[in-house]
Amino acid sequence: MSQTTDDGTRRSVLVSLTVNGLETLALGAAALAAGSAALRAQTAANAADMAVVAFLLIGVLSGARPADERHPLGYGRERFFWSLFAALGIFVGGAGIALEGAVSSALNPSPLDHFAIAYVVLVSTVALDAVALSVALRPIRLEAVGRGISLRAQAQRSTDPAAMTVVVGGACAIVGAVAAALGLVASQVSGSALPDTLASAFIGVMLIVASVILLRVNRALLLGRGVPASMLREMSRIVAAQPGVVDVPDLFAVVVGPSSLIVDGDVTFADDLTVPGLEQAIMRATAALRERWPSIDYVYLTPVPQARSRRRRSSART
Fold first, then answer.
1. Measured between alpha carbons, how far is 187 from 318 in angstroms, rounded to an integer?
2. Do 196 and 139 belong to one domain?
3. Are 170 and 255 members of one domain?
4. If you count Cβ atoms within 10 Å of the first and of the last residue's Cβ in the chain, which end, N or C, has fewer?
5. Could you tell me the pTM of the whole model?
6. Same domain flag for 40 and 132
7. Cα-flanking dihedrals φ and ψ of residue 52, to 5°?
8. Can you spell out the DSSP letters for 252-317?
9. What is the pLDDT, as a whole number, of residue 307?
């Protein structure tokens, strides 16, 4: 992962932590004044986000450690581990409390009051969340520009769960604040607490969906997610195009950290290559791959006379 992108992720996490702290205090005060279930749900979501961002900060700092003898591929997956806890925090903390508040409000409705205070606080939180979201999107946008792809495509391919968690959390905060405001407006106009209760339930369901998405992403990364088939085909073409390479029977790439890949493969070289020529061919292929994808940190190309199964390859290396 580039230092610039990693610094951007760290900055977005710190900004998100600061914003969530300020918003939790303001929303909590507004929820007490207005008696709104939706505001209580939004307060709970923000409080959970503080714990979530704390997990992310631990992951960002611990995952930045350099490789050593015990972890020769580095500590990049530390970020995946702590981001998994963050996704669980969204599910248990934010979603659970929001839904509990909605059920409690439905069973024991109470009158709402002090709408003006609630609206001012909600508008302020939307503004703060928009700033935090803009900061969180910046490192993802930089990677998208560097790869020449759209922001949406980069978000789908991103291997930095900390950055994605901050983005998803920020987007949920904005949508949740808007939902809470709409619920308050509807309750103020109708004189019923039901719209506010429904807004609280919506916030809870939204957070469940967000946490499930993040859990799936982190699970795939922890299990050693590969790269898209189109990218793998292009890698094979680049290796096959190098002088002295006859065929690329097998090639795969695995994510080992945020924007960090390991490429492993079997390559058939020309029979007339000398040992120095073989070494130079491997070095050229490695350089070509890294020039195309700077996120490739490790390349292992094994000369083979013919294709072999990955089971045989694993047995040969143990």
1. 67
2. yes
3. no
4. C
5. 0.72
6. yes
7. -60, -50
8. EEEEEETTEEEEEEEEEE-TT--HHHHHHHHHHHHHHHHHH-TTEEEEEEEE-SS---HHHHHHHH
9. 64
Q: Are residues 126 and 144 in the same domain?
A: yes
DSSP three-state, residue 157 = helix
Angle at 60 between CA 58 and CA 61, to 5 degrees: 65
Cα-based distances in Å from 173 to 179, 180, 299, 312:
10, 10, 41, 50
Residue 82 CB contacts under 8 Å (≥ 6 apart), including other chains: 55, 56, 58, 59, 62, 63, 162
What tokens were used for 244?
């002295």
Tokens of 27: 């929303």
CA–CA dist 89, 235 (Å, integer):
38
The HSE-up count of residue 116 (CA atoms within 13 Å, CB side) is: 0
Task: Kindly write down the DSSP assignment for every residue of 236-256, as one continuous string.
Answer: HHHHHTSTTEEEEEEEEEEEE
Residue 311 pLDDT greater than 60, yes or no: no
User: Angle, nearest 10°, between helix axes 37-63 and 115-147?
Assistant: 30
Backbone angles phi, psi at 297, to 5 degrees: -100, -25
- Measure the CA–CA gap between 263 and 146, rounded to whole angstroms: 20
Pair 124, 247 in one domain? no
Bridging pattern class, strands 245-257 and 296-303: unpaired
What is the extent of the structural domain holding 218? 3-222
In which band, very low, low, confident or very high, does the pLDDT at 55 lie, cut at 50, 70 and 90? confident
55 residue type, one letter: F
Distance in angstroms (rounded) separating the CA atoms of residues 2 and 229: 24
Q: Which residues contact 252 (CB under 8 A, 6 or more apart)?
A: 226, 232, 263, 264, 265
Edge-to-edge strand list for the sheet holding 296-303: 245-257, 260-269, 296-303
Task: Work out the burial of residue 214: count CB atoms within 10 Å of its CB; fewer than 13 is exposed, 13-18 middle, 19 or more buried.
Answer: buried
Which residues have C-beta within 8 Å of that of residue 217, sequence separation ≥ 6?
Answer: 161, 164
- Strands 260-269 and 245-257 come out as antiparallel
pLDDT tens-digit readout, 202-216: 888 888 888 888 888
